[in-house]
Request: fold
Amino acid sequence: MFASFMINTWLVATIVAPVAGVVGFFVVLRGSAFPAHAIPKGAFAGAAGAALLGVSTLLGLAAFSLLGALGIGALGRKGRHDVVTALALVMMLALGAAFLSRTTEYEPEIYSLLFGEVLGVSTTELLPVICLGVACIAGVVVLYRPLMLSSVVPEIAAAKGIRSHRIEICFLLIVALATAMTVPVVGALLIFSLMIGPPAAARSLTSKPGLAMVLSIVIALVTVWIAIAASYLYNWPIGFFVGGLGAVAYGGGRAWAAWRRTGDPRRRSVATASSLSAAGGGSR
Reply:
């Protein structure tokens, strides 16, 4: 599990998870789950095209991720956002099917891009992944305040002169970069689970943005590390374990939130007092 040929996998996963946790926190906060779901699927078409041309699949992933993000952001301004996102997804998947039909030497690599591959990370991918990860984190840092304001209190953001449409496009570009770096590890079909499961679980555990972001990173790291170990031991796709663990983490977060609402005596007494007060006011 910790042999020399696994070092790259552990390194890339340790870079990927914090980026997915940070970017995913804002995906959940902004309700942008559908675009975050669509962009990786569309990016897969870029990987298929790159495989057809014989160039780096990471380059194809990045190119199609950025094109998809720009298309969704630009067209979503003039039409229904969900419809535009769905159409962009369908178009890029159609291109991916066309690219795949033109090649016969894609099966192992394409399978790993769809479902993730514990042994699929080469030394040549380390530097691009690091650069994309740094770019994602830098983008979030630069946009943090307007991104947070437009996500939580869009009216105040508009009053301060923050243009939500521009912030949305910038954020989708960050999602695209995060997608390009994480797909080779987790897979296009299940990267969505890493960017949604841990952040959603973290938001269930606390309402404080800073703490929720830290928890999101921690949960994403633990999820990926356990998934790598399980994938190595049982020879199942790493994406399967990431998806399953993400769902478990979210379920645990929701259970904790429900227990806090019903199991804390102080909260229960306050809720009871409020109910009695409301009932008394109604009877008068």
